[in-house]
Amino acid sequence: MKTLFDKTSIGNIPLKNRLIRSATGETLAKEGHLSADLLKVYEDLAKGGVGTIITSFAYVVEAEQPFPGMLGIYDDSFIEEYKQLTELVHSYDANIILQLVYCGSYRMAELGGQEIWGPSAVENLQTHIQPKEMTAEDIVNLQKAFANATARAKQAGFDGVQLHAAHGFLLSQFLSPYYNRRADEYGGPIENRARMVLETYSAVREKVGTEYPVLIKINNSDGMEQGMTFEDCKYVCKKLTEVGIDSIEISGAWHHFTGRQNSYFKDDAAEIAAENNVPVILVGGNRDYHSLTEILNQTAIKYLSFSRPFIAEPDLANRWKNGDVSKAKCTSCNGCATLHGLKCVLHR
Predict the structure, then answer these.
(1) Is residue 119 part of a domain?
(2) Do the domain assignments include residue 300?
(3) What is the pLDDT of residues 259-314, one digit of tens each?
(4) Number of neighbouring beta carbons within 10 Å of residue 342
(5) Is 99 domain-assigned?
(6) pTM for the model
(7) Do the domain assignments include residue 189?
(8) Could you give the 3-state DSSP secondary structure of residue 308?
């Protein structure tokens, strides 16, 4: 019988349990760089027993700086300071993976002088920012930026990277028929719309080799008209598996779900896991120890990731391991979601 506390591995990363802190925007960085408050967040998580931490996203292009308080990884100045972070997390026998992103038009605000890229010049439905359609040169440059960021992450001691291709950011937009209206080899059918993600992965692999773990986060669907469908998602996951992706985290349009629903991407994640020989991570609404144990034993899903529950209880993993398997305290109220550092308004 599988348990939440089995020892396993993703690629060459040994994992002490199946619990993962999913990437969470702490908004505590200082102009892209680490702060004492941010280090404390990661220390509390590692001390609390989680097996693997995926960082908040780190932007790979200096000019972007899409949200205040988010991490950067756009030049070599980050390598030495991130060694402090990775060594801290490793001292608690936990792993840490750096999430990489280019946000594009899904960002807080259009700052003066910045050139914001998109697959097409389509106004963002949420931010109302209209990006510049990327040229072939822009595409190559961004792929190189992801590759160079991965090399820096490796030098800094991160156990791997996760490409953020979900939640409406740029890699996700390339997969979306709504945002990607290109007439070249990057637009049209899913075989073309997937090209940016697959080429970015290839650029990363070429830079760091086949042994360094590379994960990806992807929507099960966009949950909107003319958005990426689940069939599109399945195609991309199949192709990524074929070229050697180390793990796939299945997310989606979480705003369609309520706090009363548990593990709301479970069925689609289970289908992806059954069809592909790759470790699948399930995120979204994971709260109940017993239900999660059932998921591990009734599906091919291998790992469970959490964001808000670890804001309410950084020591949730230790609590469950020590025998108190009552439900996570998080009520999904979203009171923690601020631009001034994450804090549970109910339990901390």
Answers:
(1) yes
(2) yes
(3) 556 888 999 999 999 999 999 999 987 889 999 999 999 999 999 998 788 887 89
(4) 20
(5) yes
(6) 0.93
(7) yes
(8) helix
